[in-house]
Write a structure and sequence with these properties.
The structure is a single chain. This protein has 14 helices and no strands. The chain has about 280 residues and is mainly alpha-helical. The chain has a domain of about 160 residues: Orthogonal Bundle (MetI-like fold), CATH 1.10.3720.10. Helix 9 packs antiparallel against helix 10.
Length: about 280
């Protein structure tokens, strides 16, 4: 006789010692390249180790050499704002609308949002190139229209984060309760559902920022400058600063994930205390 799913999962789960070993191996796999990068940035010209390459990043004499980095960083921040706006103003209301009014559209919409995962970036660029040719002729070749393409690339990650929050909350009951008390749809979305979906929305926004800061292929093939393309340019002059900024980008992404995790833990603690009161 076959065992229930939970019992089978418990049977296949590793022991506490096995879990620690698996965690240690995975941590080691991630730590080796990061430590190697850090050691590379600390290499001095005399063969020893120093922080001269880190200090050179902030030396005014190198400002001209490193100017593409700051331009690329500014462009990436603009793209991050535009991509987050797409997630907040387009994706999130659409997902709430489907959950409340059109539940049969959930699977087709999920397929549509996850589709960019199966499309290589080079194929996406081939399809977007004619669109951006028209955009360039009509409204210019500024950096912000590229956020439309990035809005497509972050769809799978943002969708999963927001959908997890929607599945954890009975949005239908909350919306109907608020509507029965006279709340308009704007109030329902912003003051009733928004706070309950805050963790998922925050995770979607932070993941979107992380994806945008690390994107290279689309910007390079469409002849736009962002942080990653600027790093490639500077890497030809000074490979140390490119590795230093890559480490800083990794640290930034780690802090973002830590913020998401701590926020989720704090929210669960607040709910638990309210449940015991």
């Amino acid at each position: 006789m076959s065992l229930p799913v939970r019992q089978r999962a418990a049977t296949l789960a590793p022991s506490p010692l096995g879990g620690r070993v698996i965690l240690a191996v995975i941590g080691l796999i991630f730590a080796i390249p990061i430590i190697s990068m850090l050691e590379f940035t600390l290499r001095a010209a005399d063969g020893g180790h120093s922080v001269e390459h880190w200090l050179a990043l902030f030396d005014p004499q190198n400002a001209r050499s490193y100017a593409p980095i700051w331009v690329g960083l500014g462009n990436s921040l603009v793209l991050s704002v535009g991509t987050v706006a797409i997630v907040l103003l387009l994706l999130t209301p659409t997902m709430v609308l489907i959950a409340l009014r059109f539940p049969k559209l959930r699977r087709p919409f999920e397929f549509l949002c996850l589709l960019p995962l199966s499309i290589p970036a080079i194929v996406l660029v081939v399809g977007l190139a004619p669109v951006y040719l028209v955009i360039g002729r009509t409204i210019g070749t500024g950096i912000w229209p590229l956020s439309l393409a990035y809005g497509v690339t972050v769809l799978p990650y943002a969708y999963r984060a927001i959908q997890a929050s929607i599945d954890a909350v009975d949005v239908g009951t909350l919306a109907e309760a608020a509507r029965s008390l006279g709340a308009g749809w704007g109030t329902v979305l912003l003051r009733v559902l928004g706070p309950n979906l805050r963790t998922g929305i925050l995770a979607a926004c932070l993941l979107s920022v992380a994806v945008v800061l690390g994107e290279f292929t689309i910007a390079s093939l469409l002849n736009r400058q962002n942080l990653q393309t600027a790093l490639v340019v500077v890497n030809k002059q000074d490979p140390y600063v490119a590795v230093i900024l890559s480490l800083l980008a990794l640290a930034f992404a780690f802090v973002l994930l830590l913020v998401i995790d701590r926020g989720a833990v704090a929210r669960r603690g607040i709910r638990s205390r309210r449940g015991h009161q």
